[in-house]
Amino acid sequence: MSDPRIFFAAERTLLAWIRSGLTIMGFGFVVARFGLFLRLVAAEHTGAGAPSSSTHFSNYVGIALVLLGVSSMLIAAFQHRSFVSSLPSTDIPPSHGRYFPVFVAAGLGVLGLVLAAYLAL
């Protein structure tokens, strides 16, 4: 007897990790851009071109959060692939691809790395 609920539970878990990784990446982008906002506000108040206090710390924290989101998605995709490969073929519905969610996670991971590179520049 096949039980596709196991496969679908694994897919839901992967999608939850992807959603969490995207949330962490978005929060990292906001943290990094908040440092830029603080620099602009400080420059406006002082009238100088560059503020005296450095706010690069928020940029580093934002990049770290983006990389944390990327790594959580990629690790979850690897674990999902390992788990699905251990399932018997009768538990996987024939209309569903085994690796499509893994490709989605990998693509989002690549986009996250591009975002981290953009924030680093």
Walk me through what this model shows.
With 121 residues, the protein is mostly helical. It has one domain. It has helices spanning 4-46, 56-86, 100-120. α1 (4-46) packs antiparallel against α2 (56-86), α1 runs parallel beside α3 (100-120) and α2 (56-86) runs antiparallel to α3. The longest helix has 43 residues, at 4-46. It is rod-shaped, with a radius of gyration of 20 Å. The model has no long low-confidence stretch (mean pLDDT 87).
Reconstruct the topology from this structure.
Blueprint (H helix, E strand, L loop, with lengths): L3 H43 L9 H31 L13 H21 L1
* Total strands: 0
Query: What shape does the CA trace take?
Result: rod-shaped
User: What profile does the largest beta sheet have?
Assistant: none
Q: Which class best fits the helix and strand makeup?
A: mainly alpha
What sequence of helices (H) and strands (E) makes up the elements? HHH
Write down the Rg: 20 Å
**Proportion in β-strands:** under 5%
